[in-house]
Specification:
Layout: H1 2-10, H2 20-23, E1 25-26, E2 33-36, E3 44-51, E4 60-68, E5 72-79, E6 82-88, E7 92-97, E8 100-105, E9 108-112, E10 116-122, E11 128-136, E12 145-146, E13 164-166, E14 173-176, E15 184-191, E16 200-208, E17 213-218, E18 222-230, E19 232-238, E20 244-250, E21 253-257, E22 262-267, E23 273-281, E24 291-292
Antiparallel strand pairs: 1-21, 2-3, 3-4, 4-11, 5-10, 5-12, 6-9, 6-11, 7-8, 7-10, 9-13, 14-15, 15-16, 16-23, 17-22, 17-24, 18-21, 18-23, 19-20, 19-22
Amino acid sequence: MKTLWLMFIVVLPLTAREPLAQRIAHTDPAKYQRAKRVHQGAGQMDLMVLLDGHALDTNLYFLHRGVLEPQSGIGHHFHNQCEEMFVILDGEAQFTIDGRTSVLKGPAGALCRMGHSHAIYNATDKPIEWMNINVSAMKDTYDAFDLGDDRRGAPLDPIPVFMTLRLDRALLRPINRMSGGKGTVQYRRALQPSVFTSPWAYVDHLVLPPGTSTGPHLHREVAEFYYVMSGQGAVTAAAEGGGSEVAPIRSGDAIPIQLNEAHAFENTGSEPLEFMIVGVSRDSSKRIDSVDVPNVPY
């Protein structure tokens, strides 16, 4: 299984310097690959690599997207050189951190910090839409130590005793003309820099109602990816000294944004455009900045 897992990580081509439309990754169940007993877990899952370690200038190692089959999971294992977070977009799953297990209902996730262990198990009779985000302490560095525990039948804590991610629209707050954009959007920093020990800086939750947008801005200290949870729209991006590019985006897309790359998003559909945003800093100091650049056309 270790060989298969590493295969998922290294097979994608370099994408960081490709045109914007070509480096946007699209979730495609037809491209999922079957993986059995991942980290000695139960059953099987189907997944693909959306972004690999070359997708961002900073230390993102991968973004995986797939389906966790019924009575299946990822076995209990440690990470000492990276931080990882399993996220479910629907249903419910049993999340384990450091041997303690609780049920979370999607969309939600649980962070495994460096030096800690985690697992996930789908005890239901329905498949769960799943993703996995990994950020390494050093560029292109990954590790895992399996514990041989599939967590089937694990005792459940009614309240999690570990840090969780909640992507609940009810928690969002309105922001008018975000970075000089149009209309009022809904935004929340779902995970703050203080919860991470690696260069992972934050996880944001953003919803753009129809007809709204975020204005062009850039980050000199943080590279990001935007994962489209629902809806459709357009992204505009421009590297320093270069012209701007526009590309359509839809549910299931992952859009990498590099250091110093101006970017803006617009909802061009009739339904809310919803994002999960992951920021990865240059280093573990997790410096965070945002610079509006209104002279970039969008």
